[in-house]
Amino acid sequence: MSEDQCLAVIMAMSKLELAMVGKVPLADARAELAGLQSTLPENVSTRVDELVAVAESAQGIEVGDPAHPMATGEFQEANKLYREALAPRCPSFDLDY
What we know:
mainly alpha
């Protein structure tokens, strides 16, 4: 993947994270990701789909609620798998956090 593709995916995923905490509409984040997914390697695209599903499951749940995916660990696990899939394709980005 080119650096521009890596940056576009990382920025779109940041928007998805903001949607999970109610800061941007989920539809906006999904639309941005949908425009990128056809250009992504299959293993990265699969992980993006998983994170979108987690974000969808967060809708209507307040941040801080024990049922929120960020509180249950579901988000952290899906995010880790996404970063592990993306990291070898975007070596100039530090995704190990």
